């Protein structure tokens, strides 16, 4: 196999493998929230209070979609609104204690399910994953900034 064929295979297989892994982890604990809502909640947790429009941009969705997501997260008690100190006409959303607890519980369930599968790998397979993590993290960071 040529270097170009190997590169093409990685380019095609990697997104599929990551998507399947992500879907499998989401299925470990059914949630009343869809993946887009969980992702938005995680972004608010990571970035702190944020305007819904800015959150929509970060999540790659339309403002109307983010309005629905924010409403759902507010109704579940996971987000709260507060005035934007820079512009009193606007508002920010922030994560609540309930939202923090939800994300922590979800991460724990997913980590437990993933660990159970990692425990089934050979030491060589586990070492390959360990070695790949820094590169995957670099790829993710680069893709998030483009």
UniProtKB/TrEMBL annotation:
<keyword id="KW-0805">Transcription regulation</keyword>
<dbReference type="InterPro" id="IPR052526">
    <property type="entry name" value="HTH-type_Bedaq_tolerance"/>
</dbReference>
<dbReference type="InterPro" id="IPR036390">
    <property type="entry name" value="WH_DNA-bd_sf"/>
</dbReference>
<dbReference type="GO" id="GO:0003700">
    <property type="term" value="F:DNA-binding transcription factor activity"/>
</dbReference>
<feature type="domain" description="HTH marR-type">
    <location>
        <begin position="11"/>
        <end position="138"/>
    </location>
</feature>
<dbReference type="InterPro" id="IPR023187">
    <property type="entry name" value="Tscrpt_reg_MarR-type_CS"/>
</dbReference>
<dbReference type="InterPro" id="IPR000835">
    <property type="entry name" value="HTH_MarR-typ"/>
</dbReference>
<dbReference type="InterPro" id="IPR036388">
    <property type="entry name" value="WH-like_DNA-bd_sf"/>
</dbReference>
<keyword id="KW-0238">DNA-binding</keyword>
<keyword id="KW-0804">Transcription</keyword>
<dbReference type="GO" id="GO:0003677">
    <property type="term" value="F:DNA binding"/>
</dbReference>
<dbReference type="Pfam" id="PF01047">
    <property type="entry name" value="MarR"/>
</dbReference>
<protein>
    <submittedName>
        <fullName>MarR family transcriptional regulator</fullName>
    </submittedName>
</protein>
């Amino acid at each position: 196999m040529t270097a170009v064929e190997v590169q093409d295979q990685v380019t095609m297989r990697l997104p599929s493998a990551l998507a399947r892994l992500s879907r499998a982890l989401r299925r470990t604990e059914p949630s009343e929230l869809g993946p887009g809502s969980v992702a938005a909640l995680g972004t608010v947790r990571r970035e702190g209070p944020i305007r819904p429009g800015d959150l929509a941009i970060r999540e790659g969705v339309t403002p109307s979609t983010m309005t629905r997501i924010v409403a759902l997260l507010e109704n579940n008690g996971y987000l709260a609104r507060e005035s934007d100190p820079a512009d009193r006409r606007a508002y920010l959303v922030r994560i609540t204690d309930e939202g923090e607890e939800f994300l922590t519980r979800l991460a724990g369930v997913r980590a437990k399910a993933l660990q159970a599968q990692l425990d089934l790998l050979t030491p060589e397979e586990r070492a390959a994953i360990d070695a790949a993590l820094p590169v995957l993290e670099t790829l993710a960071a680069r893709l998030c900034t483009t």
